[in-house]
Write a structure and sequence with these properties.
4-stranded antiparallel β-sheet; globular; Beta-lactamase; alpha+beta; 2 domains; about 450 residues
Amino acid sequence: MRKRISTILLVMVAGGLMAAVLYLNSLMPIITGYAAKNLASAVFISGRSQEAVENLDLNFSFIRFTRNTVDMEGKTVVSRFLWGKSVAIFQEGFGCTLIRGEDADKLLNRIFPDTQRPAGNPDSIAWPVGNLITDTLAGIDREKLAETGAMLMQGDAYGGHAFAFLVMYCGIPVSEWYNAGIEPDTRLLSWSMAKSFTNALAGIMSRDKLLDVNLPSQVDAWQTDERSLITINDLLRMQSGLEWNEDYGNRSDVTLMLHCEPDFAAFVAGKKAAHPAGEFWYYSSGSTNLVSSLMRKSINNDEAYYRYAYEKLFYPLGIRNAVIETDASGTFVGSSYIYATARDYARFALLYLNDGVFDGQRILPEGWVDYSFTPVPGSRGAYGSSFWLNQSNDLKSVPRETAICRGHNGQRIFIVPEHDLAVVVLGYSPKETNDMDFDRLLGDVLAALPGNPGCP
């Protein structure tokens, strides 16, 4: 009897160990893929050191145990953990891409098209198109703003680890702060703030009659079932009804998509319908990447597709050096992977503060900003079309009409129309360890500004 019990226990232990090994094996591409991709982008796009990135950005969970090799000449990063391995490669224009189901030579042979970059030196061109800033605004408590910026960089008062902080009031940057190793021209990761840029591209394509967000999205795999009713509007407003798990802490749909799949949109298109389209709100990075793929399909020419984002959105806003990375299939990762400067993110905010007009030029169609800031039923006033909202009054220090571009690990653009204000915060502020007190930060910023703007 004892022998039988021992045998059963041995089998159970062996089975448990086998299951644990199999699960750990399924995590390998996520663990090593996260390390390789984020380290590569931080080194080759942001210009940060491997040591700095490993000590901060990669210093959590299993990721901290990866062994990373950076090849500066070949512009590759290899990350290893136990028996797992991932490789990320940098290519001009395309940014950094994980090799997933694609031969490295095939990826490296891609050529990003030349774009019509604006002429002139931005340092000699007036803001907002250039970097020549003339601040003549009165009534601002400069000392208070300076104190706020200094405390934010130190990390004690507000928490987190800020890389960059910019306050734009009445359309003019009035305070900028950068942490050690970060400069005004350092391009920093957007994470999910990229979704709001995808919203802008959808608006511009609507203006150019290349996209109708209210029509069914025409995904080939959906034409014979209820998913055929899903519109681009449903995808932008996170109400597609598709099955999705946005949990970043384990093996979920979003981590599989970003770190294991060569074609993000194809992965999302394979998801089943869990709810009727337009009836259930659930945040999904997959939905935004499917929109990016539909944009590519609508333009139907890869050279024109790659040029479009730069020549129709970035360059007209004076954003000259931003990078939108692609997945291995070549589609922009519109959910997560934009690298731009703090001033570039402020320029983007200015577009929405001015109802889609920038430096006198209408970029977004009339009514698009109102559409973007209209809450989705079921979101409790927290979400519009690829923008987070404060209709739920989660942020007590700013008006309910505040809109937010919100990214993983504390990336934020706060757009406060009532005060003609935008606040950009970039850095590394993981919620599970040291979340940033954005409500206190915004309250301190507003306390330094005049009560009634009266912008010139």
